[in-house]
Design goal:
The complex is a heterodimer of chains A (296) and B (312).
Chain A (H helix, E strand, L loop, with lengths): L1 H25 L44 H20 L3 H24 L18 H17 L6 H7 L2 H16 L3 H8 L17 H9 L2 H6 L10 E5 L2 E10 L2 E10 L7 E7 L15
Antiparallel strand pairs in A: 1-2, 2-3, 3-4
Chain B lengths: L6 H12 L15 E9 L3 E6 L2 E6 L5 E3 L3 E2 L9 E6 L5 E6 L1 E11 L3 E5 L6 E5 L2 H10 L8 E7 L6 E5 L24 E7 L7 E3 L29 E6 L5 E9 L20 E5 L1 H6 L8 E8 L7
Parallel strand pairs in B: 4-7, 13-17, 14-16
Antiparallel strand pairs in B: 1-2, 1-6, 2-3, 4-5, 6-7, 8-9, 8-11, 9-10, 11-12, 13-18, 14-17, 15-16, 15-18
The chains are: A alpha+beta (296), B mainly beta (312).
Chain lengths: 296, 312
């Protein structure tokens, strides 16, 4: 039974190493898409106080958030892990097992430090898929890999030999451990999103960057605008501001010979943007001066 | 508390469309009285200040603590200096901060005894003198005192510019141009927890890191995403700020875009360890009124508001 468990760890570790290597070598960096007219990342001109800001939308530059995410380091680590994974498959030599154990022990220390420092940098364990901050699951996952590597030190066979023997119990434990590994991997949702197997989570309307052009588009297509368009004096708004999920636009209006203001509230949601409006007295007063019907 | 010029009008317009604001989820005790002004006269029993709204007289007691680059005595209360006074409940001045200034931003250049700091587009650049006896303490909390990294120091105003007195908060480990950001899809909580700091010399208002950059909202395009999921608001929006260490809460209007605060993803350990992220930067009088110590520089905070998506 002990040999079965040990042999399974060889397969699991080889799988993890080869998967990590594949991710590091093949997954490209995701370049954030900027909404029209919106910059989310400072450019060299406006990154106040920061010399040589070198990242703009559409141009990938070396990421300085973590050395582990530097492309050259990532590629080097990927090649190294790939070699170790292949060595685990073809050789049962103790030096290979020791190298894997030391590598996972070092990785556990690094991931633990990233978690302790809490700087929000990713571990880069699976390259660009591991850009999120290191959590408890990430530390636990690397620790369990180290434990598996220690157990695998005494395994008598190489990975290919284990596969050739085709032991059913090995397959069962292998699947169970992979399921545990997947459960501890925050990279899985990111991978599914990249493969198009899962829709990208939308930003909540309160936090979503909504360009003004998008707001005008939703406003001008709305029933609320079309029904009050004829009383609006100027299409240039008097005031435009936002609070949470709503962007407000105030237009001067002339209703029954009186100067009024029409306030439109346009949703900042990604889809199904609703528009509400109210007609208020033009002169500001302490008491709310809602003069006409409130539309929902 | 004085409000932003647009605040009342925008509230009226918002309520006309969306209905009356619901009371916010964040509440607490009333703030204490805090005033700011230029010292006109000081005696062991009375401090006279020239404030924005005229002369202010604050009784002094033997328990009154004076700060001027560190714990000081009544001799620091010299006419012409600027003071911020926090009063104890009905017992006169509790604490007086004299010529206190805060410099938080990105290090642009470093010399042997000075640092050039960019405090963002609204506050500009400042040359901070770092005396040799203070440099060691600053370096303990700011091990990367080099261009591109953040700095936060409490200073004393001087004719030659601010002079560092001691570090404000510990330096984050990342570069200022790459602050960690919350997951774009992270939901906005009903109450936002984090850390509150102070800025500038004003009486009222706060700087908020997620002011919408579009239209007349007042935000800046270059503000990075914060490490706390915050909803977008505008200048004039009112937020309820509670000091979790004292339990005092008050509604304060947003008066500035917190471009600098957005780059700090740090904690406050004033009473327990706060979650990461500078949620608000308060005007010093508002900060002191909520029971904060300007020399310490932060308190654990809970923020809510009347706007949808922030406790409303």
């Amino acid at each position: 039974m002990l040999h079965v468990v040990q042999c399974t760890q060889v397969l699991v570790l080889a799988f993890v190493l080869l998967a990590a290597s594949l991710a590091k070598l093949t997954v490209p960096r995701a370049v954030p898409a900027a909404p029209h007219g919106v910059r989310d990342v400072p450019t060299a001109d406006d990154a106040h106080g920061v010399p040589a800001a070198d990242e703009v939308y559409g141009v990938a530059a070396p990421d300085r958030r973590s050395p582990l995410l530097d492309r050259r380091v990532t590629l080097g680590l990927g090649v190294f892990e790939g070699c170790l994974g292949l060595a685990m498959m073809v050789s049962a030599h103790v030096s290979v097992r020791l190298a894997v154990t030391v590598m996972f022990a070092a990785a556990t220390w690094v991931v633990g430090e990233l978690r302790r420092q809490g700087t929000g940098t990713g571990c880069g364990c699976f390259g660009e898929l591991s850009r999120g901050p290191v959590g408890r699951r990430g530390v636990l996952r690397t620790g369990l890999c180290t434990l598996a590597a220690v157990v695998a030190l005494g395994a008598p066979h190489s990975g290919t030999d284990v596969l050739r023997q085709g032991h059913a119990l090995v397959g069962l434990i292998f699947v169970a451990e992979l399921a545990l590994f997947a459960a501890l991997s925050p990279e899985l949702p990111a991978l599914l999103e990249r493969l198009g197997l899962r829709p990208r989570a939308a930003a909540p309307c309160e936090r979503r960057r909504s360009p003004l052009a998008e707001t005008y588009q939703a406003l001008h297509a709305s029933e609320a605008w079309l029904s009050r368009e004829n009383v609006i004096v100027s299409t240039a708004p008097l005031d435009v501001w936002r609070e949470g999920c709503w962007r407000f636009l105030v237009f001067p209006a002339r209703v029954d010979g009186r100067d009024m203001e029409i306030v439109f509230a346009v949703s900042t949601a990604a889809r199904h943007r609703t528009v509400r409006y109210a007609v208020v007295e033009a002169e500001p007063s302490e008491a709310p001066g809602v003069a006409a019907a409130r539309s929902r | 508390m004085p409000s932003h010029p647009c605040a009342a009008r925008r509230r009226r317009h918002r309520e006309a469309v969306l209905g009356p604001s619901r009371p916010g989820a964040v509440s607490g005790g009333l703030p204490v009285r805090a005033v700011a002004g230029t010292i006109l006269d000081a005696s062991p029993h009375l401090l006279v200040l020239a404030g924005d709204r005229g002369e202010v007289r604050v009784p002094m007691t033997q328990a009154t603590e004076v700060w001027h680059g560190g714990p000081g005595g009544p001799d620091a209360l010299r006419p012409g200096r600027r003071a911020i006074v926090r009063t104890a409940d009905g017992r006169g001045a509790d604490r007086v901060w004299v010529d206190i200034v805060r410099v938080a931003g990105t290090v642009v250049a470093c010399g042997r005894d000075a640092v050039e700091v960019d405090m963002g587009p609204h506050r500009g650049r400042v040359h901070v003198a770092v005396p040799p006896n203070v440099l060691g303490r600053v370096l303990v909390r700011h091990p990367r005192l080099e261009p591109g990294y953040l700095i936060d120091v409490i200073c004393v105003a001087s004719p030659d510019g601010p002079r560092a007195a001691h570090p404000g908060t510990a330096q984050p480990g990342y570069r200022a141009d790459h602050p960690p950001a919350a997951d774009p899809s992270a939901p906005v909580p009903e109450e936002v927890h984090g850390t509150a700091t102070w800025f500038g010399t004003g009486d009222a208002g706060l700087a908020y890191p997620a002011v919408d950059p579009e239209g007349n909202a007042g935000g800046c395009h270059e503000t990075p995403s914060t490490c706390v999921p915050l909803p977008y608001v505008s200048l004039g929006s009112e937020l309820t700020v509670r000091n979790d260490c004292t339990g005092r809460a008050v509604s304060i209007p947003v008066t500035e875009c917190g471009c600098v605060a957005a780059r700090f993803c740090d904690r406050c350990v004033q009473c327990g360890t706060s979650p990461r992220g500078r949620v608000v930067e308060l005007a010093p009088v508002a900060f002191a009124g909520l029971g904060g110590d300007l020399a310490v520089g932060c308190f654990n905070v809970t923020v809510g508001g009347a706007v949808p998506g922030l406790g409303g």
